[in-house]
């Protein structure tokens, strides 16, 4: 009999629309591969979700993005229900979503990261937290939601955080000049490295999910030693948090100050997008793994931590 797979999608985070696109693509590919598919648009109703998962499917494909879907919350429910699920478990998911804690573990593992501090929202505008250029980020959002780059004192003076909806505590991170890189990790190996070149500005939410807003260079045109260090950092980060399945590491390569330059890990995404513009399927394709093979591998390697 074909395995039954429930695809969780949607949710209520700031990344709901992206999750719906990812979930639809996954459900279509798995259905064509012969799996028995049910899609569930997840609402803020734990009891209702538990009912939808009864009788239990063989596997849950977690295509949720953002808070509550990839921060360990839904994973905890699936552990209680003893349903194998894709991507990382409770602890790794929670750690990856908590940017300050994740960076501490990355540094302990010997991975180069940008310096940062955590500050009150109002303190940032005083100009005393960090000399520009720097980046401000929410502590626990994905897809570049809320990220702002502050390049000079004029930008500090012009910054307005009165409508900042991500809490009073903010990550202030040293801005790393150079090039945007990303690496897909599947199991225990890095598939490859992509360089991302936005058409304008930085690789923000709009550039990630609007066709034509960024150029993807696969494989990234890097010096061989930088290419390998980038891959190594991605696998180390995956292992440092205890991730499983598929993850994506985002990095910066500063080639402006020295030769061959330095690579810095920014963060790791335990549930990378599966949209037509997403980076992990693109890297998998370059490694001769098509989309159906990729999501089928994820289903067949789904598990619980307990």
Radius of gyration: 19 Å
User: What are the secondary-structure elements, in order, as H or E?
Assistant: EHEHEHHHEHEEHEEEHEHEEHH
Q: Kindly report the average pLDDT value.
A: 90
Percentage of residues in helical conformation? 25-40%
Strand content: 15-25%
Distance between the termini: 26 Å
CATH architecture tag of the domain at 4-87: 3-Layer(aba) Sandwich
Number of helices: 11
Which consecutive residue ranges, at least 5 long each, have pLDDT under 50?
none
Biggest pleated sheet: 5 strands, antiparallel
- Can you tell me the CATH topology of the domain at 4-87? Rossmann fold
Q: Quick one: overall form?
A: globular
- How many beta strands in the DSSP annotation? 12
Specify the structural class.
alpha+beta
Strand order of the largest sheet: 10-9-8-11-12
Name of the CATH first level of the domain at 4-87:
Alpha Beta
Task: Write a structural description.
With 306 residues, this protein is α+β, with helices and mostly antiparallel strands. It contains 11 helices and 12 strands. A hairpin with a 2-residue loop joins strand 8 and strand 9 (189-198). Helices cover 33% and strands 25% of the residues. It has a 5-stranded antiparallel sheet with strand order 10-9-8-11-12. Among the domains are: 4-87, Rossmann fold (3-Layer(aba) Sandwich), CATH 3.40.50.20; 116-174, Dna Ligase, domain 1 (2-Layer Sandwich). The model has no long low-confidence stretch (mean pLDDT 90). Helix 1 (16-32) packs across helix 11. The two termini are 26 Å apart.
């Amino acid at each position: 009999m074909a395995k039954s797979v429930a695809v969780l999608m949607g949710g209520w985070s700031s990344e709901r629309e992206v999750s719906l696109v990812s979930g639809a693509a996954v459900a279509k590919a798995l259905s064509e591969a012969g799996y028995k598919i049910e899609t569930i648009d997840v609402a803020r109703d734990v009891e209702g979700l538990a009912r939808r998962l009864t009788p239990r499917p063989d596997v849950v494909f977690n295509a949720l993005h953002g808070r509550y879907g990839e921060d360990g919350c839904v994973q905890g429910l699936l552990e209680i229900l003893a349903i194998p699920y894709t991507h990382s478990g409770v602890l790794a998911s929670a750690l990856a979503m908590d940017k300050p804690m994740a960076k501490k573990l990355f540094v302990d593992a010997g991975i180069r990261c940008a310096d940062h501090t955590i500050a009150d929202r109002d303190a940032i505008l005083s100009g005393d937290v960090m000399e520009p250029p720097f980046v401000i980020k929410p502590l626990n959002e994905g897809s570049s939601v809320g990220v702002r780059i502050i390049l000079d004192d004029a930008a500090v003076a012009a910054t307005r955080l009165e409508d900042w909806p991500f809490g009073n505590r903010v990550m202030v991170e040293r801005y790393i000049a150079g090039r945007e890189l990303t690496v897909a990790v599947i199991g225990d190996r890095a598939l490859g490295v992509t360089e991302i070149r936005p058409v304008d500005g930085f690789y923000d939410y709009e550039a990630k999910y609007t066709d034509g807003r960024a150029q993807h260079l696969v494989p990234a045109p890097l010096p061989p030693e930088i290419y390998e260090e980038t891959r190594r950092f991605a696998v180390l980060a995956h292992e440092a948090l205890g991730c499983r399945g598929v993850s994506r590491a985002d990095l910066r390569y500063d080639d402006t100050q020295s030769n061959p330059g330095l690579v810095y890990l920014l963060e790791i995404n335990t549930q990378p997008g599966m949209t037509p513009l997403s980076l992990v399927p693109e890297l998998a394709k370059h490694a001769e793994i098509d989309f159906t093979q990729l999501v089928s591998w994820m289903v067949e390697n789904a598990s619980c931590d307990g």
